[in-house]
Amino acid sequence: MADNLNQININGVSIPVVKIKDIIAPVYSYFSLNIGDEQIIDKASEYVEGLASSGNLEQMRSFLWIDPVLNVYTVESAVIYGSKQMELLEAITGKEDSDRVELSTPYGRWIAARGRLILKILELTKEEDAVIQHWLNYRDFILELSSTQTGCKIISEIYDLRGLDFFLFHYVGGETTAIKDKSLFENAKKIPIALRRMARTEEAAQVEKDIENRIKGFTKISNQFGPIKQNQNKANLVLEKLRLEAEGFWNDYLSTDVWKALHSDSRTELIDAFVSEIFLKNGVLHGWSIVILSLCKVIKREMSISLFSPWVNIIRKSSFTEPLDATPSKIKKIKTRKITYEMLKRCAADPTHPPTLGQLIFIAKFWDDPIMDECTDLFKNIRKKLKKDCPNSTRAIKNIAALLEEKHSVKGESASVVDLRNSAAHPGREDAFNWAEYLEWLRKLIGKPPKYILRSIIFDLRLPIDKYLQDNFKKHSK
Is residue 188 part of a domain? Predict the structure, then answer.
């Protein structure tokens, strides 16, 4: 691969630059086409249509961001490179004729295929929302959708499924800079345009009013966190200030030691949650469940880093043997352990898909379990390795599992962290709980005494496990 790279020199440092042909060549090869073959748009459409109709979430997720050959970026790049069709070229340069670019044309089919794939994923899960929002907003797919009648129908259906927040949230999260183009609400304004093409005129007017009210909410925030100099990009500076405010809050709330020890993605999630909460309180966003989901993702990630990731190789080499003399009641217990063990083996075979939060709780519950130890040496071996550097690990793991299963009641509702996560992550359950009330409880659970979930994960597990891994690496590298 190195031979196919150009080099640029910046301050005496040679930096490899990947050519577009190096990115798209594997895509053409997969479809048995020569680079630049115009059939790529039909082949790609057929492939994406197959993904959507399969209902296989893992395959669809792989196309979004995991597969190194066939993913959104590489396939779209290949289609653009291979298209000599005027409709596609004009659409990309903003000169499309929306009455002509329709489903009967290759480009219309390509738009529809990708749009329906998005809809199918959104119907199944919220876990990939950020990736899809990035695709729609930052890669401007929403502009392509809005160019056709079929695409407008898809925009309308996304709106029906997720609401206006979906078209706004990605702009207030992460570390992107797209907000610098002052387009915070621009993509959301495609919704009433799409609704009108669907003859949903009254709804379109209501959405426009909703957007204007949210702009007023953003203006209110801007007055508090806005720029102090003329000609500064107000929206961008507001978000930068909000994120600095968020980082300061979490640093104080969790303590500097815990904050610095968290995975960088977890810090980003917590900052996003804080910023989103401010937008929710000021009417820019309406869906509180997204903040709950962000906090649950942090718990899951930090637990996975300690309970799963360091032990992948040990899990792969382990085995599970059911005792022959087990009683009927014991066999039932063994089956539950076997389910957890087999899940671990599947996840270890593909570490890009670590255990879910619920599965991690089962790992924690069986971490020091006589029946599990009778069937496999997996956890015995891990505990033995951690005995010196992590003497409190077993107690800490059991305590964390108990806290995550603990039920909390709010106005007649009762839910655990896992209950909240599952409702927040699955479409159609946005109204399942009083999210704002549960948010305060969850925030205390992860960062305030006596619970301290994140502190326990970091100090009782993460840092001691890291020390064991470092010491073990030094010992074997001598």
Answer: no
